[in-house]
Amino acid sequence: MKTIVSIRSDVRALKSENRELDELDFNMRAQLSNWFSAGILELRRITYDSTPASIIETIAKKESVHPLQSLDDLRLRLGGGRRCFGFFHPSLPDEPLVFIHCALVPTMASTMQEIHDHTGTDSNNPAAAIFYSINSTQPGLAGVDLGNFLIKRVAAQLATEFPSLDTFATLSPVPRFRRWFLNKTSQEGKFAPTSEFIFGDEAAMEKFLDCCQSASIPLPPATSPISHLVTVLEDNENKWYEKPELLEALDPILTKLAAKYLVLEKHRGKPVDGVSKFHLSNGAELHRINFLANQTRKGYQTSYGIMVNYLYGDSKSIDDNHLSYVNGEVVVSEAIKDLLC
């Protein structure tokens, strides 16, 4: 089985240069979907003390959403107030195929700092289960629907273990938001974005410019407000996220831009953002956009620190949301609708 999965990984790597491999890739994915169906997979909790070291090593190496900082960081993620689960196949009993990290917290977390602050010991009555990282370990299983089943299986198990849970949500990255923003603001001519699109309205633009002056960041002559915004966000020496004068002005600007990116930017009728596409197709709701939620170097480099809560409701709402997604609709909360006004 491992050899077949590895072969498909090679096929996927080669097919960009040889389109004749597309059919082989499609057929292999269909067969692997049968072999790795949800009913066959075993769900296991991964802990620091009882899980074999080889599996923990895989978890540490394959964590890509929030790279591990230290051994203590790993212990924290597998310790009290947290849960880590993985799917295993009978033919690959020592290799997690996909794994997910979850935090048990009092309310829906809006920042990674909240997750760090509210975990460390198990709580008897957590109100929210926050999925903050999901990773696949097998490139050869790309396109095989494992993550969807994993989230729902884990949610069901947690609901049994903690009857107090009434909220199941994610705290998800927006990995391509910064790239989209820079591409958008570099466009010229008829494709160039308007100031209204970037800033939301003139009042927000004027507030940003005033705050730049308060923070001693002068607007160079003949520089447009949009160009100035790009300069402020991209200047590594400036460190806008450390300037309180700027944060109040940048919060609504970046939050509204993230909403436009997640809801309005589509390809073939589906969101261009891969994380959003994954959760919305699973039946989640785009619930809340969080400013400065990930204050790490990677967080700033990918999304200016923005993260998103996707909310998983009851089985009926999940089914309804999935159907809406299939029909080309992005299901959003009232708070997100307000950002798009």
TrEMBL record:
Lineage, broadest ranks: Eukaryota, Sar, Stramenopiles, Ochrophyta, Bolidophyceae
Protein name, as recorded: Malonyl-CoA decarboxylase C-terminal domain-containing protein
Domain of life of the organism encoding this protein: Eukaryota
Organism: Triparma columacea
One CC-aspect GO term: mitochondrial matrix
Residue ranges of every copy of the Malonyl-CoA decarboxylase C-terminal domain listed in the record: 39-312
An example molecular function term from Gene Ontology annotations: malonyl-CoA decarboxylase activity
Pfam families per the UniProt record, alphabetical: MCD
Gene3D superfamilies: Malonyl-CoA decarboxylase, catalytic domain
Biological process according to GO: acetyl-CoA biosynthetic process; fatty acid biosynthetic process; malonyl-CoA catabolic process
